[in-house]
Amino acid sequence: MALNKAALKSALEASIASYPASAAAAAQGWADAIAAHVAGGQSPQGVPPTPASVATGKPALTSAIASAFQAGNLAGAASGVAGAVATLYQGLLFVGTTPGTVTAVGGASALSSALSAAFHDNTANSATMSAAADSFANAIHACTQTVIVTHVAPSAVVGPLT
Length: 162
Known about the structure:
61% of the residues lie in helices and 12% in strands.
């Protein structure tokens, strides 16, 4: 498998369209979408992150996104979501020919800026749910592609999550 931006957009759109009753419910939808997206990625050795590492990071992702949604301003929400996503990525583990871990999330700061712009544009322009979900998915997917995974020797390989 590979990262699937269309599935991420669809899951985010479904979450938005469900009109969640609380920040916690909205955060759960986003966390489910983001976790499913990253779970479909592959390290340079062609292996996905372990399901346990995705599952272990998901409660903190959900909680941090809920807090971000309650920030009271768009920049705070964007920064909180970006930090939560980067933290999830940093905890991913890979079991290929040799074990692998995330050694960098190069797009974390760009994610915050992209989400801030998406929140602002979607609010200012009353974007459709589909357009909003597409903006958020583009930002998250772009960040995910900057995740660098390093597998240890003797089959050492370093490269992006794809």
